[in-house]
Task: structure prediction
Amino acid sequence: MKYRKLGDSDLTVSEIAFGSWLTTAGGVEKDRAIACVDRALALGITLIDTANIYGRGVAETVLGEALAGRPRDSYVLATKLFFPMTETDRGLSAGQIAKQIDASLQRLRVEYVDLYQCHRYDPDTPLDETMQALTKAVQDGKTRYIGFSEWPVDKIEAALAMTGVTKFVSSQPQYSLLHRAPEAAVIPLCARHDISQIVWSPLAQGVRTGKYAPGAKLPADSRASSDQMGGAFHRDWLKRELLEAVQGLKPLAAQAGLTLAQFALAWVLREPNVAAAIIGASRPEQIDENVLASGAVVPAELFAEAERIIGA
Result:
């Protein structure tokens, strides 16, 4: 496992991060979810990403159990807030930040998180109120650093222009060969301000692994066919022409000595501003495969050809 510095912080994180949305939030049984966490840590993954909304606290609770007894400095723990936890508890107001971080810490069984992230931008709360509340959370020792996920560029710029508040060190966008939107503005802006990307869905919800064959029935154990997890699936990525293009990447991956999943992760990690790519896993063996993407050296021409095939 290779490691990268996270923005303007003293945190060093594994290039592959373990995401808890599909695993510890109820997508698989608890024993297997904990086994996945154990395998991730054993293989050198140090960055664990979660959120209060994942299973409305379930993911954090299971992670708290999985991490119990481990040295606190042996992993980097990140969680998020914004989405509704109840009919009235939502958003990024000062009251919600104070309430939700305490609840997350209790579920996670820790005294602090390393990174507290705004899961989305809250248009109903003044930005200054949000930033002051996040700053207080840092000052109170409840989080070491702060980040954001999927914020509009102008709001990122406005937060960075503020004085007397804690600065962001991380951004969490969706980023993959099938979704390159962050390259237009978010990544350049963050690079200028020493903010790193911790990207979600680097495998495009599993499409980039090649598991969805053109014209074939959806695999029974896949996210796209799951009643619990399939609701958020990007159905446009199941179009025959795209799935055929993904299959066309197999020879390129083979030339690099990688599986399709490893090739996809290596493509994301080619970007210097990316500190880590978040993976989800329903089985420990999937983690075994994915971690081998860390440190992979792939000729630039193979990535260029992959972009041509996908039309990205």
User: Anything to note?
Assistant: The two ends are 28 Å apart (CA to CA). The first strand starts at residue 3 and ends at 5. The beta strands are 3-5, 12-14, 16-19, 47-49, 76-81, 113-118, 143-148, 168-171, 196-199, 274-279.
